Amino acid sequence: MAESKLREATDEEMAEDAIATATEATEHTKAIVELDGREYTLTFTRTTVKKMERDGFNVSSIDLMPATAIEALVVGAFEAKHPSMTAKQRLDVWQAMPHKDELMPALVELYMAPINSLVADPTEATGSWKLV
Is residue 6 part of a domain? Predict the structure, then answer.
């Protein structure tokens, strides 16, 4: 009888599944951008969000320091699916995209999805907690 070999999901894959489950009813998890015949997937994972935070990004700084924060958000949006692109290449794609005013709030929503998944209740709760 052949032995069944199951591949263990990585932490990143499990986190992405949790994000998708926690956000599927109200939020999106990625944006697909097509430009000059190429497709780019803009998304954030817990790993990319943590990296951005370590690098000093704070989503609330978009209103206070828009030039710096928007650039960091755009560069970060490419990180999960296009890590080999340089920051300049990512910004060049951004500059060539139309309707940035509509995409910017979507990027903020995408950025918040991994954060929101950290505190979202599971769809099938089996445990409980209490303060003592």
Answer: no
The domain in which residue 62 lies consists of: 28-113
Any residues with CB less than 8 A from the CB of 119 and at least 6 apart, and which? none
Total domains in the chain come to 1
The whole-model pTM stands at 0.74
Q: What is the pLDDT of residues 69-124, one digit of tens each?
A: 999 999 999 999 999 999 999 999 999 999 999 999 999 999 999 999 888 877 77
3-state secondary structure 79-94: HCCCCCCCHHHHHHHH
Q: Take residue 72 and report the two structure tokens written for it.
A: 């960091």
Q: Is residue 122 part of a domain?
A: no
105, burial (CB in 10 Å: exposed 0-12, middle 13-18, buried 19+) = exposed
Q: For residue 45, is it within any domain?
A: yes
